[in-house]
Structures are given as structure tokens and as C-alpha cells.
Structure prediction request, 245 residues.
Amino acid sequence: MKIIGSFVSPYVRKVLACLEMKGLDYRVDPITPFYGNDEFERLSPLRRIPVLIDEDLVLCDSSVICAYLEEAYPATPLLPPDPKDRARARWLEEFADSRLGDIFIWGLFYQRVVHPLVWGEPGDEARVARTLAEDAPAALDYLETQLPASGFLFREIGIADISIASFFRNAEYAGFTTDPGRWPKVARFVGDVLDHPVLAKLLRYEDIQRGTDIKGRRQALLDAGAPLNEETLGTREPRKGLMRL
Prediction:
């Protein structure tokens, strides 16, 4: 299987973690967000990552991809067996992708990391202030009522756990940390999930991607043993506003 996407994207991170936990062979085309050529647009009409290519099947959207992996490769389930628990897991995955994505990606990561690095201009600090003062605390208050005091959501780590914790890694890249005094369950849960060996393995590739310029990034990832595809869909110049994380 081939995954088109950035190691730093929380949506790509979720898909790669699922592939790793299921023991599936895959290769990554490490396209940089906001870069991409016409072939990428053909594969992903909304110009979003990740994209999964499995023989003649092309899928976009991380939740759709993970649902496919769960059904097509059920040997290592990443959703709980009970129907009520499965429904709750799907809801928490959606809450993470939609609400945490809006808060931590568009409200923080995009403003503080992407804007300066990709566009060479400051982000919207008014939005950052609103995110930190209002949006993030409200979301964390909700998660504090949903997360367990110990362990994972449904005994074993699964898609919902990865989905939630993944956004906190990008929030950390933007300078946000969870106050364990105010949100002890969230802080404990996120730390445990991100410390999982699979997430720790992917972090090595993220660190390379974040710390290397675009021209040298591919070789650095290969040197680190990242499972890269032989071809790339990236281009030299960003196409502003066209690709989403």
C-alpha cells in the first residue's frame, strides 16, 4: 500500500499508526502540506492528505481509510467489539478530527508554524489568543469527562485513542501544553498514547521532516529507515491554500 502525506499531519499519523499496529506493509510519499502537482489533485480532488492507494483502490480522508483498513484487515482490531463502544469510538474519532483539528491545527499549528515557514508571514495572533483562551479549554473540559483515569479508552489502544492524542502532538509543536492540574485525565491519557512504541517510532520520522529543508528531507528520511515510496508528487513551490493537512 502507498500513503501520500506528511509525517507531521495528525491525519496521516493516525493512518500510519493503524498500518503499523496491523502489521501491514506500506510506503509513504512524504508530500509536504500545501505542495503538490496535478497528479496529486487527480488522486485527491479536495487536495487533502492522507491518500491511500491499495492496488486499484484510491481513498481520501483519514477516517474513511482507517475504516477500510479495519474491515479489510480485521486480524488486529482497532475498534472495540461492543456496538455501543464502537459507536462511541467513532464519535470520539470524529470529535478529534473535527473539533480538535479546528482548534489545534487551524487555530494554533497553522498560525504559528505553517504561516511563518511556508508563507513567510505571521499568522493570525487574534485567532491564536481566542483558541488559547476559549476554544482549547472548552474542548479539554469535554475530554476530561470522556477519558479514563488510567489505560486506554477501550482496554487496548485503538483508532479513537490515536485520533485524540495525535492532535496534541501538533499543539505541542505550536507551543501548547496541557495543564495536568486542570486536566489530569487528558494530560495522562495523551502522554500514554504518544509514548506507545508505534507513535514513538513515527515521531523519529516527524523530527526529521520538521528539522530538514525540503530538498534534503527525502534522503534524510531514507537514511533513517523511513518506508518511503520511490516517486514523489511534491513540487518546488507551494500552492497557497490548496492542500490541507
Remarks:
- The mean pLDDT is 88.
